[in-house]
Amino acid sequence: VFLKGPSLYAFKGLAGRFAPIGVHIAMLLIMAGGTLSAVGSYRGSVTVPQGLNFVVGDVMNPTGFLSNPTRFFNTEVHVNKFYMDYYDSGE
């Protein structure tokens, strides 16, 4: 887009020429994020009765070689009360 005198001019189809580059960059970012998530995350599950505690680091397992424990793994969680509400329809 440029000005020439009192008129405004633009190149037709310029955005269409750069759109594939943007799409490919987005796809590379998505693939990189998925790869980092696969090799640098933690997975875990725990069943804790009401009134008991658990330490986060005891139930989380690394999923890859980039998984580094942090100071939050020493966090102790206490479950005061757990309940589920349902709609009248049973959902």
TrEMBL record:
UniProt keywords, alphabetically: Cytochrome c-type biogenesis, Membrane, Transmembrane, Transmembrane helix
Domain ResB-like span(s) in chain numbering: 5-90
UniProt entry tagged with the keyword Membrane: yes
A Pfam short name: ResB
Transmembrane domains' residue ranges: 18-39
Superkingdom classification of source: Eukaryota
InterPro entries to which the protein is assigned, alphabetical: Cyt_c_bgen_Ccs1/CcsB/ResB (IPR023494), ResB-like_domain (IPR007816)
A single GO cellular-component term on record: membrane
Annotated membrane topology: Multi-pass membrane protein
PANTHER family per record: CYTOCHROME C BIOGENESIS PROTEIN CCS1, CHLOROPLASTIC (PTHR31566:SF0)
This protein's name: ResB-like domain-containing protein
